[in-house]
Specification:
185 residues, mainly alpha, 69% helix
Length: 185
């Protein structure tokens, strides 16, 4: 069995692959809490986000397979999903925002590491994710602010109008060329 060096670019790509699956489980778990409270707008949004995170995991899988990376290699730091007991509705939305911020940080760190190694293939692959994370952070930041100002239950009825974008549409690469990505955030 081959061993992947912890903290290596390849190791961090594998970690992010697993992290995308954990992100998916996080959103499905939180969707079930909203379902228990009959908040169908939030339930649908979090369920769709779980599906989107699963699609992100598959993008990482396909990329890792294109590089012939062995996911069965000896690797010590495989992230695990931990169920949080928080069912305070506004705090769940805040937790989702914090989760997206952490995910953005990991992906930007991967990009910087790829840049330092001169690995333009990884940089190109991660560019889409950087834009995606900006979008997701903005979405959950706006969602948190609106739910906090209006109340979760009151805001829930407006969500079906804002959640109609399909996961497949979002998975397409942006057409515009990126001149420079802000990695300081």
């Amino acid at each position: 069995m081959s061993k992947i060096k912890e903290g290596s670019l390849e190791g961090l790509l594998i970690t992010q692959y697993y992290q995308e699956g954990i992100n998916s489980e996080f959103y499905y778990n939180k969707a079930s809490i909203f379902r228990q409270h009959d908040l169908n707008g939030f339930y649908s949004l979090f369920k769709k986000q779980g599906e989107e995170e699963q699609a992100h995991k598959m993008k990482f899988f396909d990329y890792l397979m294109s590089r012939k990376v062995n996911l069965n290699a000896s690797f010590e730091k495989i992230p695990k999903f931990v169920i949080t007991k928080n069912d305070e509705l506004i705090e769940i939305i805040k937790e989702a925002l914090d989760n997206e911020k952490e995910n953005s940080k990991r992906i930007k760190n991967l990009f910087v590491m790829a840049e330092a190694h001169g690995d333009y293939g990884v940089q190109d692959f991660l560019t889409w994710f950087i834009h995606e994370q900006d979008e997701e952070e903005n979405k959950f930041n706006a969602l948190y602010k609106a739910a906090k100002e209006n109340g979760v239950k009151k805001y829930d009825k407006f969500l079906p109008k804002t959640c109609n974008k399909s996961v497949g549409d979002k998975m397409k690469r942006p057409e515009e060329t990126i001149e420079r990505i802000d990695l300081k955030n």
